[in-house]
Amino acid sequence: MGDETMKADQILDTRGLSCPMPMLKTKKALKGMASGQIIEVWGTDPGSKNDIPDFCKKNGNELLDMTDLPEGYTRYLIKKG
């Protein structure tokens, strides 16, 4: 993990939102994407650190990266399965 060169097809900013909104917005965004596309999700909700990896495993998506950034949020890179 930690691939800074990967370019996302879409960026979803969920900073400031609390559970379950980051997960619901991520799910909705992925529905509109094609298989193989990458979404970059920014979030501040601590619950997302468990929810997003679990969601990816259960739904055939690939969590490419999960990084806590110095700016105070977590960045998730998800490849749609």
Q: What are the secondary-structure elements, in order, as H or E? A: EHEHEE
Indicate the low-confidence ranges by residue numbers: none
CATH class descriptor: Alpha Beta
**Main structural class:** alpha+beta
- What is the name of the CATH topology? Translation Initiation Factor IF3
Largest β sheet strand count, sense and barrel closure = 4 strands, mixed
Any idea what the shape is? Answer: globular
Q: How much helix is in the residues?
A: 25-40%
Widest sheet: strand ordering? 1-2-4-3
What are the salient characteristics of this protein?
four-stranded mixed beta sheet, Translation Initiation Factor IF3, 4 strands, globular, 81 residues
What do you see in this structure?
A 4-stranded mixed β-sheet has the order 1-2-4-3, with helices on one face. Helices cover 28% and strands 28% of the residues. The chain has a single domain, classed as Translation Initiation Factor IF3 (2-Layer Sandwich). Strand 3 (62-68) and strand 4 form a beta hairpin. The chain has 2 helices and 4 strands. The model has no long low-confidence stretch (mean pLDDT 93). By secondary structure, it is α+β, with helices and mostly antiparallel strands.
